[in-house]
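Usage

Read records sequentially. Each one opens with the input sequence:
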Amino acid sequence: RAIADLNATKIGNLTYKDIDRKITAIEEGLVNYDLQNAWVKVGQLVDKTSSSSPEVKQFLLQPENKGLLTWASTKKNPVYADWQGWDIRVIDIDVKYKKEDAWYDGIGKRWADRTDADILSRTIPPDGIDPDRWASEDAATRRGQLASADRDQYLKGGANKEYWAATLQREAYKVDLPEEFIQNYVEYYQLPDYGSWRDRYRQEHPAFEQAFKDARLAKGYEPLSKLPDQIRSAPYDMIYEEYKNDFVAYDKIKGDAVAADAYFIAHPDFYKAWYRRQAYEIYLPEKFVDLYVEDKTTKWKSNFAQARFWQKNQGYYSAMTAARNLKSTINFDLIPSEEVENLYNTYQDMPSSSARKIFRRNNPMLDIWLQRMGITTELAGKGPATSRVYELNQSIADTIAKLEELRNK
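and closes with the structure output:
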């Protein structure tokens, strides 16, 4: 107590402890008056923080204190021996966000201080954790997940956006990334770490990509992963962000066909969004995306109705089957018109072969289609009223067959 009182004793503008520091500095060769006073200031900062605090380093790195830092680094205190490795940009961030760093760094301890009973009593898991899995986790695993969720929320929740950006800037400085790419680093790591956000950013910023690779290599860090040959376009990720809650909910039930269909029915906008995103997932060209959504979400009354849609949009059909690695075996010339399909449905409902034959004779377009499909082996008998129609349609059919033969050669 007596020593503390003595050190705090004021002598002019200084305390006894300040004067003692100044005298010691003079005895150890610090002759510059301004630097002697600066050393006193260092001591005062050390008293408030520590000898290795960012506040002390920030003060010592001021241009006017360069001589002081050179002198201090020759002393026995190892804190100042490596001063040439200090980065004022990093230290400035350490000082400015010291309070936020302390809160962030203390998240793990705050969860560690909670009892197992408290941890296990929490029935609602953090976002992104499956409830069934959460229910089976032990207290230690839950602590880690809760702490991780809190850290994400503290950085990315919106209230500390400036601090989040600063932490990323600090990381970039520590990697020795060139100054012109610091903002790229911040933007890159503020993108979601799922989907194709980051791959797309690297692809769109080749100079940053190369600088980042070089910096990591120079530091001996693990190399960046190789970019995939194909990277999904932005709408793929944007759709997910817009309907994120729906995608998460649907993913949990998609194994149950009944529940999945019911979810789509209850969420028609998401239903279309799901297939729109799937179109981008399979790298379908942009010009066919709307057709893909229409194809997948229309309640076709028959397979032939869908085939007519493909027939009308054969460019889309070719692109879609190629994107999905499907073999297309459809002969579009055999797809019946809606009129012929309706006749075929009536034909199938007829009870006797004689009735069917009369029906075919009276409906030559159906009769020709049935024969071409191999459903019947020959045309029905030709009556005088229909013979000319048969001749014309048979001629058309023969022409189509010849074209197919030429096409297949």
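Summary fields computed downstream for this record:
- Confidence is low (pLDDT under 50) at residues 383-388.
- The chain is about 65% helix and 0% strand.
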